[in-house]
Design goal:
Elements (H helix, E strand, L loop, with lengths): L1 H13 L1 H21 L1 H5 L7 E12 L1 H16 L3 E8 L3 H11 L2 E7 L1 E6 L4 H27 L1 H9 L20 H15 L3 H12 L2 H7 L4 H31 L9 H23 L4 H19 L11 H7 L3 H15 L3 H33 L6
Parallel strand pairs: 1-2, 1-3
Antiparallel strand pairs: 3-4
Helix pairs in contact: 1-11, 2-8, 2-11, 4-6, 6-7, 8-11, 8-12, 8-15, 9-12, 11-12, 11-16, 12-15, 12-16, 13-15, 15-16
């Protein structure tokens, strides 16, 4: 078995052109995709910045509501998080509604002792911002009014106070704890390339059959199940070694965040490559005419699973509904999610589940190899008799 494992690894290495492609292309992809999409990841800041929209108002309000509105204008004008927002008056309600409908503006109708807000349903952030500020002002105004009824002196102190009081405390998740474009694609593109290691067993096992190497191995007395199992081990060692080189090079060249524990990525590779090499071994065993199966796997199944796993478009975190179920079909999704959860949340539960799943696949693979190879041997014995 050791001779077959060694021969399998050497056969993979002899194809220098393909070997260099599998080593260098993931690095190229990480650089190109990571740098190209950096602006998208950088736009996910830890705060919401609102700018460049218009607020229109129609003033038919009383004295008290005008005091609230004057306070609102001063808040908007002095806020550091709101820029290039203009507040303009309209002549009638229809003109204001037209601005809301066409230009996605916000309309405030000061009517008696209330303010009606009109906004475009495509601009809910603007509406929420305006509503939140007005609600805060009116709450404070109503509180002062009630205090004034009980103790006018205390109400005067509240009005004249310049101290900023925060009644709500919030904790933000640090922006540094989310992946940059290089961090994300440093994981995803290596996972993408691991899919294509399936081509090695698909091609080389077929070559062994065409060149009668498989028949010679059988004549040497080695059973077919040991031949296939040895081939699987050889393909796994080769693919895992190349993936490790990708991992080390990307870490050195791009300073990608692979977590404080540098073993997270190597551990997550194991189940992925078990699945990929297992599929590559089983297809020649199950399909005798495997050209169509090879084409479907490499040109249809792998691209679809890569898309669902987030190899092309960034997908991380929990999704909702049926899309979450569909994406979990892809091994790349499990690979990415287990790594990101370990690095950025400190939660290794998904990584442990992924490892358990990989070893369960390994057990199933060994069982299938044993039964299918035994069936192949028994079929050969019907036509070959050795005395």
């Amino acid at each position: 078995m050791i001779a077959i494992i060694k021969a399998t690894i050497l056969n993979c290495i002899r194809d220098r052109k393909n070997l260099f492609f599998m080593i260098l292309f993931p690095i190229f992809l990480i650089f190109i995709v990571g740098s190209t999409l950096s602006s998208y990841f950088n736009s996910m800041d830890n705060s919401v910045f609102v700018s460049d929209f218009n607020i229109y108002y129609l003033n038919e309000g009383d004295k008290k509501i005008n005091e609230v509105f004057d306070t609102f204008k001063s808040v908007v004008e002095e806020s550091k998080d709101i820029e290039d927002i203009s507040i303009k008056e309209v002549r009638n309600i229809d003109d204001g509604k037209k601005e809301v409908r066409v230009n996605r503006a916000v309309l405030l109708h000061l009517k008696g002792d209330s303010i009606d807000i009109y906004s475009n349903d495509k601009s809910f952030i603007k509406n929420s911002l305006v509503y939140g500020i007005l609600e805060s002002i009116t709450d404070r105004y109503n509180a002062v009014t009630e205090v004034y009824k009980i103790n006018p002196m205390k109400a005067g102190e509240i009005i004249s106070s310049t101290e900023e009081i925060n009644f709500i405390k919030s904790n933000d998740v640090p922006y540094e704890k989310s992946p940059s474009s290089m961090d994300y694609y440093g994981v995803a593109e290596i996972g993408l390339m691991m899919f294509y290691f399936v081509s090695y067993p698909l091609f080389l096992l077929k070559e062994d059959k065409l060149n009668n190497i498989k028949d010679r191995i059988k004549l040497s007395g080695l059973s077919l199940n040991k031949y296939y199992l040895s081939s699987f081990i050889g393909f796994f060692i080769f693919s895992y070694s190349v993936a490790l080189i990708n991992y080390i090079l990307s870490n050195i060249l791009f300073d990608i965040n692979y977590g404080e524990n540098l073993l997270i990525m190597p551990f997550a590779m194991i189940p992925f490559l078990i699945i990929v090499n297992g599929v590559g071994i089983l297809i020649p065993l199950i399909f005798k005419e495997d050209k169509v199966a090879n084409t479907v796997i490499q040109n249809v199944i792998i691209p679809v699973l890569t898309f669902l796993g987030g190899g092309y478009i960034a997908i991380y975190g929990e999704l909702e509904g049926i899309f979450n179920l569909i994406t979990n079909i892809s091994p790349l999704r499990w690979f990415n999610s287990s790594i990101f959860r370990s690095i950025y949340s400190g939660n290794n539960s998904l990584l442990v589940d992924w490892m358990i799943f990989g070893f369960a696949v390994l057990v199933i693979l060994i069982i299938l190899i044993f039964f299918i190879s035994k069936k192949e041997e028994s079929n050969n014995e019907k036509y070959i008799s050795v005395n």
